[in-house]
Amino acid sequence: MALSGAGDKTVKTYSGGMRRRLDLAASLIGRPPILFLDEPTTGLDPRKGTTCGISSRTVDQGTTVLLTTQYMEEAEHLAHGIVVMDEGRVVARGTADELKDQLGGDVLEVRVSKGSDLERASALVAGFGSSHLTSSRI
User: Fold this and answer.
1) How far from 18 is each of 8, 88, 114, CA to CA, in Å?
2) What is the SS3 assignment for 58?
């Protein structure tokens, strides 16, 4: 449901995703010169495109957006430049295309259902060349 369709309801009845959209909308009202978005599409999967559209228009109108995300496709659509950080250090920077060129080759993404399976998964993919397996929250 879009926010416009929920205008007659109290905010406490909104889903988590609707509350995220409301937070974003409230942040944009004053057309801030800088907008910090910390994983803005978390919990918004059905409306991810809408959020990307809002953020793109915001940039086009002159707002600088600093975005944190775990999704390369999201960064690719929203960012002019991308900085990849690992444990607080910059490990790569550039445009999406530049970063993809630096990565090179094919990528095999493996998801494990339990953190305890990470070591076993690493051993299974070790034969596919140089591998760097990291854990991330799901």
Assistant:
1) 14, 31, 29
2) helix
- Map tokens 């010169």 to a residue: 33
Q: What are the average pLDDT values for consecutive 10-residue runs of the chain, which has 138 residues?
A: 68 78 81 84 58 71 83 78 88 87 72 84 74 49
- 3-class state of residue 39 by DSSP: coil
CB-CB contact of 56 with 66 (8 Å): no
φ, ψ for residue 95, nearest 5 deg: -80, 170
pTM of the model: 0.54
End-to-end CA distance of the chain: 25
Only one residue has tokens 């530049």, namely: 98
At 105, the amino acid letter reads G
- According to CATH, the superfamily of the domain at 3-104 is P-loop containing nucleotide triphosphate hydrolases (3.40.50.300)
Where in the chain is CATH 3.40.50.300? 3-104
Q: 119: which 2 tokens?
A: 């070591």
